[in-house]
Amino acid sequence: MPTTQKTLMFLSSFVTSLGSVITICSILGTQAWITSTLAITGSFSNGSVIITYGLFRGKSTQELIQGLPELDKDFEVLGILNDSSPKSLQLVTILFLILSLLTSLLSSGFTFYNSISNPYQTFLGPMGVYTWNGIGAFSIFLTMVLFVGNTQSNHLSEELSQKLYPTITIRGTTHSYGYSFWLILLVILLNIVTVIIIFFYQKARYQQKQAERKPMEYAPRDGILF
Q1: What is the DSSP letter of 124?
Q2: Would you list the DSSP string of 165-180?
Q3: What is the C-alpha separation between 46 and 5, in angstroms, rounded?
Q4: Residues of the chain where predicted confidence (pLDDT) is lower than 50
Q5: If exposure means fewest CB atoms within 10 Å of the residue's CB, which of 17, 66, 73, 139 is most exposed?
Q6: Helices 126-152/4-29 angle, 10° precision
Q7: Is the pTM value of this prediction over 0.90?
Q8: Which region, left, alpha or beta, applies to residue 35 given φ > 0 means left and ψ of -120 to 50 means alpha?
């Protein structure tokens, strides 16, 4: 059975890992990743299109100075994109986020298992926790970078707006990233906290072992021999 110290520290890591899982599920399930405001002109309209979307779904609204606005539109991001670079990069972004979710689940499993037992295999211990959290943090950081690259370099918002309103001409775009996007930073922080907790556990365990060896090192030779 594990010591009380080990149980408490690995349970703390389990809580942070589980927090990562819940946060990633929220990121996947919400659409407040980005809100883009596009200044537009058309044959009989002048104003802006406001489009808010996430990895899977989105909503667009027209705010016109001149002309009659269309009704708000709900759309599927991948559904309205053709086989193009923005769609491919969006799929890769989703895959990296799912990979981060899987690693967080594995980290949760490893930390909980270590809180109730002492595994013989090295990888099932702290080394496994370090590995899964490292991969998870790197994967979700790539998710953030790829999404920003898709919106800024591949003009994802403009592509979606052109599909929703084929007759408009876009004159300029501004972006505002929403809470779903910034929750990625929380996941990275939770991964780091998980690793720090296990690191301090290993450090405390090492110091305890060193303290137990010192009485033997400084004991009289006669006492050791007999």
Answers
A1: G
A2: -TT-EEEEEEEEE-HH
A3: 66
A4: 223-226
A5: 66
A6: 20
A7: no
A8: beta
Phi and psi based region of residue 42 (left: phi greater than 0; alpha: psi -120 to 50; beta: remaining): beta
In the numeric block, the tokens 């059975």 are attached to 1
Pairing state between β 73-76 and 46-53: unpaired
Q: Quick one: pLDDT at residue 225?
A: 43
Q: How far apart are the first and last CA of the chain?
A: 32
Q: What is the per-residue burial (b if ≥16 Cβ within 10 Å, else e) of 126-158?
A: bebbbebbebbbbbbbbbbebbeebbeebbbbb
Relative to beta strand 46-53, strand 169-177 is unpaired
In tens, the pLDDT along 51-73 reads 999 999 999 999 888 778 888 99
d(CA 119, CA 10): 13
Residue 123: its pLDDT value, please? 83
Q: What is the CB neighbour count within 10 angstroms for residue 115?
A: 17
Beta carbons of 53 and 173 less than 8 angstroms apart: no
Residue 34, both tokens: 């980005």
